[in-house]
Design brief:
8-stranded antiparallel β-sheet, globular, Alpha-D-Glucose-1,6-Bisphosphate, Chain A, domain 4, about 160 residues
């Protein structure tokens, strides 16, 4: 997996052994099956994760306490090639409806059953320049690597 970190974005490019249709479906409809249960907001453990399949839909975590905790919303829904999610979690990983950073994912066929994934989480400068924001930005690169490795493992299966 190649990666770059820019002050305002985290970008990663990698391939999965699946068609764009399957890769998009795993990423979206199968989201709760590959999103690590260790990555959630709030105090209650994560039991599931959902991306609603439409522009304007929500993406959120489902928790043991029965609460759905929003992470953001779907900005672009263009299967099987493109998905943009509004990430509305601040540097402390608390939901902030006024904050907008974007998770942009492109699915491009590179063979009969292979898809290149171009992933970018951009607008991260909107976290500000506090020490907490700097710490979060540093940890997010590794966090996205772990999360996307989990997606890749399922998409490759």
């Amino acid at each position: 997996m190649s990666q770059t970190i820019k002050p305002a974005a985290i970008a990663k490019t990698f391939a999965v052994g699946a068609t764009p249709e399957r890769a998009f479906k795993v990423f979206t409809a199968g989201f709760g099956g590959w999103w690590p249960k260790t990555h959630y907001v709030g105090d209650s453990p994560l039991t599931g994760a959902v991306i609603e399949p439409r522009a304007g839909g929500r993406w959120y975590g489902e928790h043991e306490d029965g609460v759905e905790r929003l992470w953001g919303d779907v900005l672009v829904w263009d299967p099987p090639g493109h998905l943009v999610l509004a990430w509305r979690l601040n540097a402390e990983f608390a939901y902030d409806p006024a904050l907008l950073t974007e998770v942009d994912v492109h699915f491009t066929a590179v063979g009969d059953a292979e898809t290149r994934i171009d992933f970018e989480h951009r607008g991260l400068e909107r976290f500000g320049d506090s020490e907490a924001a700097k710490k979060t930005l540093t940890s997010m690169d590794g966090g996205w690597s772990l999360i996307l490795d989990s997606f890749k493992a399922v998409a490759d299966a």
